[in-house]
Design goal:
The protein is 31% helix and 17% strand. The protein is α+β, with helices and mostly antiparallel strands and 404 residues long. The strands form three sheets. The protein has an eight-stranded antiparallel sheet, with helices on both faces.
Protein backbone atom coordinates (compact mmCIF):
# COMPACT_ATOMS: atom_id res chain seq x y z
CA UNK A 1 0.00 0.00 0.00
CA UNK A 2 0.97 3.64 -0.34
CA UNK A 3 2.36 4.22 3.15
CA UNK A 4 4.23 0.92 3.04
CA UNK A 5 5.96 1.76 -0.23
CA UNK A 6 6.96 5.25 0.92
CA UNK A 7 7.49 5.22 4.66
CA UNK A 8 8.31 8.96 4.92
CA UNK A 9 4.95 9.96 3.44
CA UNK A 10 2.39 11.06 5.97
CA UNK A 11 -1.04 9.49 5.84
CA UNK A 12 -3.51 11.89 4.17
CA UNK A 13 -6.22 13.67 6.10
CA UNK A 14 -9.87 14.14 5.23
CA UNK A 15 -10.73 17.81 4.77
CA UNK A 16 -14.29 18.22 5.99
CA UNK A 17 -16.31 20.68 3.96
CA UNK A 18 -17.52 22.62 7.00
CA UNK A 19 -13.93 23.09 8.15
CA UNK A 20 -12.92 24.18 4.66
CA UNK A 21 -15.48 26.96 4.62
CA UNK A 22 -14.23 28.36 7.91
CA UNK A 23 -10.61 28.17 6.87
CA UNK A 24 -11.18 29.62 3.43
CA UNK A 25 -13.05 32.57 4.83
CA UNK A 26 -10.49 33.14 7.58
CA UNK A 27 -7.27 32.48 5.67
CA UNK A 28 -5.03 35.33 4.66
CA UNK A 29 -2.40 35.63 2.02
CA UNK A 30 -0.40 38.35 3.64
CA UNK A 31 3.26 37.91 4.32
CA UNK A 32 4.87 34.54 4.76
CA UNK A 33 7.70 36.13 6.65
CA UNK A 34 9.89 36.66 3.57
CA UNK A 35 10.45 40.39 4.06
CA UNK A 36 13.95 40.69 5.53
CA UNK A 37 15.21 44.25 5.33
CA UNK A 38 18.27 43.42 7.44
CA UNK A 39 19.92 40.88 5.14
CA UNK A 40 23.44 41.54 3.90
CA UNK A 41 22.95 40.15 0.40
CA UNK A 42 22.23 36.74 -1.03
CA UNK A 43 25.13 34.60 -2.19
CA UNK A 44 24.28 31.94 -4.76
CA UNK A 45 24.94 28.30 -3.96
CA UNK A 46 23.98 25.16 -5.89
CA UNK A 47 21.15 23.09 -4.39
CA UNK A 48 21.92 20.30 -1.95
CA UNK A 49 22.23 16.81 -3.38
CA UNK A 50 19.75 14.80 -1.31
CA UNK A 51 19.65 11.70 -3.48
CA UNK A 52 16.17 12.38 -4.88
CA UNK A 53 17.02 11.72 -8.52
CA UNK A 54 18.01 15.24 -9.51
CA UNK A 55 21.33 15.80 -11.22
CA UNK A 56 22.76 18.86 -9.47
CA UNK A 57 24.80 21.58 -11.11
CA UNK A 58 25.79 25.19 -10.62
CA UNK A 59 23.95 27.86 -12.55
CA UNK A 60 26.84 29.10 -14.67
CA UNK A 61 27.61 25.60 -15.98
CA UNK A 62 24.03 25.41 -17.24
CA UNK A 63 23.99 28.80 -18.92
CA UNK A 64 22.47 30.96 -16.19
CA UNK A 65 23.83 34.11 -14.56
CA UNK A 66 24.58 33.80 -10.86
CA UNK A 67 24.38 37.57 -10.56
CA UNK A 68 20.79 37.73 -11.86
CA UNK A 69 19.75 34.93 -9.51
CA UNK A 70 21.37 36.78 -6.62
CA UNK A 71 19.60 39.98 -7.69
CA UNK A 72 16.32 38.04 -7.72
CA UNK A 73 16.77 36.73 -4.19
CA UNK A 74 17.85 40.14 -2.92
CA UNK A 75 14.66 41.65 -4.37
CA UNK A 76 12.52 38.91 -2.84
CA UNK A 77 14.13 39.27 0.57
CA UNK A 78 13.70 43.05 0.47
CA UNK A 79 9.96 42.42 0.25
CA UNK A 80 9.53 43.48 -3.38
CA UNK A 81 7.83 40.15 -4.15
CA UNK A 82 5.91 39.48 -0.92
CA UNK A 83 3.82 36.58 -2.19
CA UNK A 84 6.79 34.38 -3.16
CA UNK A 85 7.35 31.38 -0.87
CA UNK A 86 9.87 29.28 -2.82
CA UNK A 87 11.69 29.09 -6.15
CA UNK A 88 13.25 26.06 -7.85
CA UNK A 89 14.91 26.07 -11.28
CA UNK A 90 16.19 23.35 -13.59
CA UNK A 91 18.32 24.29 -16.61
CA UNK A 92 19.35 21.83 -19.31
CA UNK A 93 17.98 18.97 -17.21
CA UNK A 94 19.87 19.79 -14.02
CA UNK A 95 18.65 21.32 -10.76
CA UNK A 96 20.53 24.60 -10.34
CA UNK A 97 18.43 26.55 -7.86
CA UNK A 98 16.25 25.63 -4.88
CA UNK A 99 15.38 28.21 -2.24
CA UNK A 100 12.55 28.33 0.30
CA UNK A 101 11.71 31.90 1.20
CA UNK A 102 8.85 31.62 3.64
CA UNK A 103 9.65 31.45 7.33
CA UNK A 104 6.27 30.54 8.78
CA UNK A 105 3.45 28.10 8.10
CA UNK A 106 -0.12 29.16 7.31
CA UNK A 107 -3.66 27.84 7.59
CA UNK A 108 -3.31 25.72 4.48
CA UNK A 109 -0.53 23.72 6.13
CA UNK A 110 -2.87 23.04 9.02
CA UNK A 111 -5.33 21.30 6.71
CA UNK A 112 -2.95 18.34 6.41
CA UNK A 113 -0.80 18.89 9.48
CA UNK A 114 2.24 19.99 7.45
CA UNK A 115 5.13 21.32 9.53
CA UNK A 116 7.75 21.56 6.74
CA UNK A 117 8.30 25.04 5.31
CA UNK A 118 9.48 23.68 1.96
CA UNK A 119 6.34 21.53 1.56
CA UNK A 120 3.60 23.64 0.00
CA UNK A 121 -0.05 23.47 -1.02
CA UNK A 122 -0.26 23.23 -4.82
CA UNK A 123 -3.99 23.83 -5.28
CA UNK A 124 -4.86 23.67 -8.99
CA UNK A 125 -1.34 22.75 -10.04
CA UNK A 126 -2.56 19.36 -8.80
CA UNK A 127 -4.72 19.17 -11.92
CA UNK A 128 -1.69 18.80 -14.17
CA UNK A 129 -0.53 15.84 -12.09
CA UNK A 130 -4.00 14.32 -12.51
CA UNK A 131 -3.52 14.72 -16.27
CA UNK A 132 -0.20 12.88 -16.15
CA UNK A 133 -1.88 10.07 -14.25
CA UNK A 134 -4.64 9.85 -16.85
CA UNK A 135 -1.98 9.63 -19.56
CA UNK A 136 -0.35 6.75 -17.69
CA UNK A 137 -3.71 5.00 -17.37
CA UNK A 138 -4.26 5.32 -21.12
CA UNK A 139 -0.71 4.16 -21.88
CA UNK A 140 -1.26 1.09 -19.69
CA UNK A 141 -4.63 0.31 -21.23
CA UNK A 142 -6.54 0.85 -17.99
CA UNK A 143 -8.56 3.55 -19.77
CA UNK A 144 -9.34 3.27 -23.46
CA UNK A 145 -8.49 6.80 -24.58
CA UNK A 146 -9.68 10.38 -24.55
CA UNK A 147 -12.73 9.53 -26.66
CA UNK A 148 -14.03 7.23 -23.90
CA UNK A 149 -17.55 8.28 -22.84
CA UNK A 150 -17.05 9.73 -19.40
CA UNK A 151 -20.13 8.14 -17.86
CA UNK A 152 -18.76 4.72 -18.83
CA UNK A 153 -15.98 5.22 -16.28
CA UNK A 154 -18.51 5.29 -13.43
CA UNK A 155 -21.10 2.82 -12.23
CA UNK A 156 -23.87 5.05 -10.91
CA UNK A 157 -27.35 3.68 -11.56
CA UNK A 158 -28.88 7.02 -12.55
CA UNK A 159 -28.24 10.75 -12.71
CA UNK A 160 -30.18 13.83 -11.70
CA UNK A 161 -31.02 16.50 -14.26
CA UNK A 162 -30.79 13.91 -17.01
CA UNK A 163 -29.97 15.21 -20.47
CA UNK A 164 -29.03 12.98 -23.40
CA UNK A 165 -26.00 15.19 -23.95
CA UNK A 166 -24.47 13.66 -20.82
CA UNK A 167 -23.91 10.53 -22.88
CA UNK A 168 -21.83 12.64 -25.26
CA UNK A 169 -19.35 13.79 -22.61
CA UNK A 170 -15.94 12.23 -23.15
CA UNK A 171 -12.72 12.11 -21.16
CA UNK A 172 -11.38 14.69 -23.62
CA UNK A 173 -14.14 17.10 -22.62
CA UNK A 174 -13.26 16.70 -18.94
CA UNK A 175 -9.53 17.19 -19.50
CA UNK A 176 -10.16 20.35 -21.52
CA UNK A 177 -12.84 21.75 -19.16
CA UNK A 178 -15.55 21.62 -21.83
CA UNK A 179 -18.04 19.24 -20.24
CA UNK A 180 -21.15 21.27 -21.02
CA UNK A 181 -22.28 21.15 -17.39
CA UNK A 182 -23.70 24.21 -15.65
CA UNK A 183 -20.79 25.50 -13.59
CA UNK A 184 -19.05 28.77 -12.66
CA UNK A 185 -16.29 28.83 -10.06
CA UNK A 186 -14.56 32.01 -11.22
CA UNK A 187 -17.21 34.69 -10.63
CA UNK A 188 -16.85 34.46 -6.83
CA UNK A 189 -13.32 34.40 -5.29
CA UNK A 190 -12.09 31.08 -3.94
CA UNK A 191 -11.78 32.52 -0.44
CA UNK A 192 -15.51 33.33 -0.36
CA UNK A 193 -17.95 30.82 1.20
CA UNK A 194 -20.25 31.49 -1.76
CA UNK A 195 -17.70 30.22 -4.25
CA UNK A 196 -19.16 27.32 -6.24
CA UNK A 197 -16.44 24.88 -5.15
CA UNK A 198 -16.95 25.61 -1.45
CA UNK A 199 -20.73 25.33 -1.77
CA UNK A 200 -20.34 22.06 -3.67
CA UNK A 201 -18.11 20.63 -0.92
CA UNK A 202 -20.79 21.51 1.63
CA UNK A 203 -23.59 19.93 -0.36
CA UNK A 204 -22.08 16.65 -1.58
CA UNK A 205 -20.47 13.54 -0.16
CA UNK A 206 -19.61 11.81 -3.44
CA UNK A 207 -18.04 14.53 -5.55
CA UNK A 208 -18.08 12.57 -8.81
CA UNK A 209 -21.79 11.81 -8.47
CA UNK A 210 -22.53 15.41 -7.58
CA UNK A 211 -20.62 16.59 -10.64
CA UNK A 212 -22.41 14.29 -13.04
CA UNK A 213 -25.77 15.22 -11.51
CA UNK A 214 -25.34 18.87 -12.53
CA UNK A 215 -27.62 20.17 -15.28
CA UNK A 216 -26.26 20.73 -18.78
CA UNK A 217 -26.16 24.20 -20.26
CA UNK A 218 -24.16 23.65 -23.48
CA UNK A 219 -23.11 20.88 -25.82
CA UNK A 220 -20.00 19.02 -24.64
CA UNK A 221 -16.85 20.30 -26.30
CA UNK A 222 -18.16 23.78 -27.07
CA UNK A 223 -17.76 25.98 -23.96
CA UNK A 224 -14.77 26.29 -21.62
CA UNK A 225 -15.83 26.33 -17.96
CA UNK A 226 -13.03 25.75 -15.46
CA UNK A 227 -14.18 22.99 -13.12
CA UNK A 228 -12.18 21.79 -10.12
CA UNK A 229 -14.73 19.09 -9.29
CA UNK A 230 -14.25 17.57 -12.75
CA UNK A 231 -10.52 17.25 -12.05
CA UNK A 232 -11.23 15.58 -8.71
CA UNK A 233 -13.46 13.10 -10.53
CA UNK A 234 -10.51 12.04 -12.71
CA UNK A 235 -9.07 10.33 -9.64
CA UNK A 236 -12.27 8.37 -9.16
CA UNK A 237 -12.29 7.43 -12.85
CA UNK A 238 -8.77 6.00 -12.51
CA UNK A 239 -9.69 4.11 -9.36
CA UNK A 240 -12.74 2.63 -11.08
CA UNK A 241 -10.63 1.46 -14.04
CA UNK A 242 -7.92 -0.62 -12.37
CA UNK A 243 -7.41 -2.88 -9.32
CA UNK A 244 -5.42 -0.30 -7.33
CA UNK A 245 -6.81 2.58 -5.27
CA UNK A 246 -5.84 5.84 -6.96
CA UNK A 247 -3.43 6.69 -4.12
CA UNK A 248 -1.50 3.48 -4.78
CA UNK A 249 -1.73 4.02 -8.54
CA UNK A 250 -0.23 7.48 -8.07
CA UNK A 251 2.62 6.17 -5.94
CA UNK A 252 3.35 3.08 -8.05
CA UNK A 253 3.34 4.58 -11.52
CA UNK A 254 4.29 8.24 -11.01
CA UNK A 255 5.69 9.24 -7.63
CA UNK A 256 7.88 6.17 -7.18
CA UNK A 257 9.57 6.40 -10.58
CA UNK A 258 10.14 10.14 -9.99
CA UNK A 259 11.77 9.48 -6.63
CA UNK A 260 9.16 11.55 -4.75
CA UNK A 261 9.00 10.25 -1.19
CA UNK A 262 7.11 13.07 0.53
CA UNK A 263 3.60 14.12 -0.42
CA UNK A 264 0.41 14.93 1.40
CA UNK A 265 -3.11 15.78 0.28
CA UNK A 266 -6.59 16.69 1.32
CA UNK A 267 -8.95 13.79 0.85
CA UNK A 268 -12.53 13.67 -0.39
CA UNK A 269 -15.27 12.30 1.87
CA UNK A 270 -15.25 9.08 -0.19
CA UNK A 271 -11.55 8.59 0.53
CA UNK A 272 -9.67 9.55 -2.64
CA UNK A 273 -6.92 12.19 -2.94
CA UNK A 274 -8.16 15.55 -4.16
CA UNK A 275 -6.41 15.71 -7.53
CA UNK A 276 -8.26 18.91 -8.37
CA UNK A 277 -6.42 21.04 -5.85
CA UNK A 278 -5.36 19.12 -2.76
CA UNK A 279 -1.74 18.03 -3.26
CA UNK A 280 1.18 19.24 -1.11
CA UNK A 281 4.72 18.85 -2.43
CA UNK A 282 8.22 20.26 -2.17
CA UNK A 283 9.14 22.79 -4.84
CA UNK A 284 11.98 20.66 -6.20
CA UNK A 285 9.54 17.74 -6.48
CA UNK A 286 6.97 19.85 -8.32
CA UNK A 287 9.79 20.81 -10.66
CA UNK A 288 10.18 17.12 -11.55
CA UNK A 289 6.78 17.05 -13.26
CA UNK A 290 7.83 19.94 -15.48
CA UNK A 291 11.17 18.30 -16.23
CA UNK A 292 9.39 15.03 -17.01
CA UNK A 293 7.44 16.86 -19.70
CA UNK A 294 10.51 18.73 -20.90
CA UNK A 295 12.07 15.28 -21.44
CA UNK A 296 9.09 13.90 -23.43
CA UNK A 297 7.85 11.79 -20.51
CA UNK A 298 11.26 10.37 -19.51
CA UNK A 299 12.84 10.69 -16.08
CA UNK A 300 16.37 9.37 -15.52
CA UNK A 301 16.10 7.06 -18.51
CA UNK A 302 12.65 5.65 -17.69
CA UNK A 303 9.63 6.38 -19.88
CA UNK A 304 7.00 7.18 -17.25
CA UNK A 305 4.34 8.58 -19.59
CA UNK A 306 4.33 8.45 -23.38
CA UNK A 307 5.78 11.28 -25.43
CA UNK A 308 2.52 11.29 -27.38
CA UNK A 309 0.63 12.15 -24.19
CA UNK A 310 3.08 14.93 -23.36
CA UNK A 311 2.56 16.50 -26.78
CA UNK A 312 -1.23 16.28 -26.81
CA UNK A 313 -1.50 17.46 -23.19
CA UNK A 314 0.45 20.63 -23.78
CA UNK A 315 -1.31 21.71 -26.97
CA UNK A 316 -3.97 24.39 -26.73
CA UNK A 317 -7.24 22.53 -27.26
CA UNK A 318 -9.13 25.68 -26.29
CA UNK A 319 -8.16 29.19 -27.37
CA UNK A 320 -8.04 31.39 -24.26
CA UNK A 321 -6.13 34.32 -25.71
CA UNK A 322 -9.23 36.44 -25.07
CA UNK A 323 -8.91 35.64 -21.34
CA UNK A 324 -5.39 36.93 -20.77
CA UNK A 325 -4.77 38.03 -17.18
CA UNK A 326 -3.48 41.49 -16.47
CA UNK A 327 0.12 40.38 -16.86
CA UNK A 328 2.77 42.51 -18.49
CA UNK A 329 4.97 39.46 -19.00
CA UNK A 330 3.39 36.03 -19.56
CA UNK A 331 0.36 35.78 -21.84
CA UNK A 332 -2.15 32.93 -21.75
CA UNK A 333 -2.82 31.35 -25.14
CA UNK A 334 -4.96 28.32 -24.35
CA UNK A 335 -5.75 25.26 -22.29
CA UNK A 336 -4.65 21.71 -23.01
CA UNK A 337 -5.21 18.59 -20.93
CA UNK A 338 -5.11 20.32 -17.54
CA UNK A 339 -2.07 22.35 -18.61
CA UNK A 340 -2.07 26.05 -19.56
CA UNK A 341 -0.28 27.25 -22.68
CA UNK A 342 1.17 30.72 -23.07
CA UNK A 343 4.18 32.73 -24.09
CA UNK A 344 6.71 35.36 -23.13
CA UNK A 345 7.94 37.94 -25.61
CA UNK A 346 11.57 38.94 -25.17
CA UNK A 347 13.79 40.90 -27.53
CA UNK A 348 11.24 40.54 -30.30
CA UNK A 349 11.09 36.75 -29.95
CA UNK A 350 8.22 34.57 -28.76
CA UNK A 351 9.05 31.98 -26.10
CA UNK A 352 6.27 29.41 -26.07
CA UNK A 353 5.56 27.77 -22.73
CA UNK A 354 3.22 25.45 -20.90
CA UNK A 355 2.49 25.63 -17.22
CA UNK A 356 0.58 24.50 -14.18
CA UNK A 357 -1.33 27.17 -12.27
CA UNK A 358 -2.84 27.02 -8.83
CA UNK A 359 -4.73 29.27 -6.41
CA UNK A 360 -2.24 31.46 -4.57
CA UNK A 361 -0.13 31.68 -7.79
CA UNK A 362 1.48 28.24 -7.60
CA UNK A 363 3.26 27.74 -10.92
CA UNK A 364 5.40 25.21 -12.76
CA UNK A 365 6.59 26.87 -15.97
CA UNK A 366 8.23 24.90 -18.81
CA UNK A 367 10.10 26.85 -21.50
CA UNK A 368 11.29 24.29 -24.07
CA UNK A 369 13.34 26.65 -26.26
CA UNK A 370 15.55 27.51 -23.27
CA UNK A 371 15.51 24.00 -21.73
CA UNK A 372 14.28 25.75 -18.60
CA UNK A 373 11.80 24.60 -15.94
CA UNK A 374 10.72 26.82 -13.05
CA UNK A 375 8.59 26.00 -9.99
CA UNK A 376 7.33 28.86 -7.83
CA UNK A 377 5.16 28.52 -4.74
CA UNK A 378 3.31 31.62 -3.55
CA UNK A 379 0.73 32.81 -1.03
CA UNK A 380 -1.61 35.12 -2.92
CA UNK A 381 -4.78 33.93 -1.19
CA UNK A 382 -6.18 37.43 -0.60
CA UNK A 383 -5.77 38.65 -4.17
CA UNK A 384 -2.69 40.88 -4.17
CA UNK A 385 -3.32 43.54 -6.85
CA UNK A 386 -0.04 42.75 -8.62
CA UNK A 387 0.16 39.01 -7.93
CA UNK A 388 0.33 37.84 -11.54
CA UNK A 389 3.08 40.32 -12.33
CA UNK A 390 4.95 39.26 -9.21
CA UNK A 391 5.24 35.64 -10.35
CA UNK A 392 5.57 36.08 -14.10
CA UNK A 393 7.40 39.38 -13.72
CA UNK A 394 9.97 37.69 -11.49
CA UNK A 395 10.42 34.98 -14.11
CA UNK A 396 10.79 37.52 -16.90
CA UNK A 397 12.91 40.09 -15.08
CA UNK A 398 15.36 37.74 -13.43
CA UNK A 399 15.24 34.12 -14.60
CA UNK A 400 14.78 34.71 -18.32
CA UNK A 401 17.29 37.52 -18.26
CA UNK A 402 19.64 35.16 -16.46
CA UNK A 403 19.36 32.75 -19.38
CA UNK A 404 20.01 35.34 -22.10
Amino acid sequence: MFSAIFAPIKRPRVLLASVLVVLLSACGGGSSGNDDSTFSGYSYRPPANIGDGWAISDAVSQGLSEQRLEDMMDAVRRGEYPIIDSIAIASRGRLVFDETVRTQLDEKDGWVGNVNLSMHAQFSSSKSIASILIGIAIDRGDIGGVDTPYLSLFDYASYNNWDDRKNEMTLDHVLTMRLGLQWDEWSVPYGDPDNAVVRFFNQHHDYSKGLLDLPMDSDPGTVFAYNTIASISLGQAIENSNPLPVADYLSTYLLGPLGITQIDWTQTPTGIPDLGGGLYLHGRDMLKFGQLYMNDGIWNGQQIVSSEWVVVSTQAHTDLSWNNPASRDWQVDGYGYQWWTGHFERNGQILNTFATRGWGQQTVMVIPDLELVIAINSNDYDGHPDAINQVFGLIDDFILSSAQ
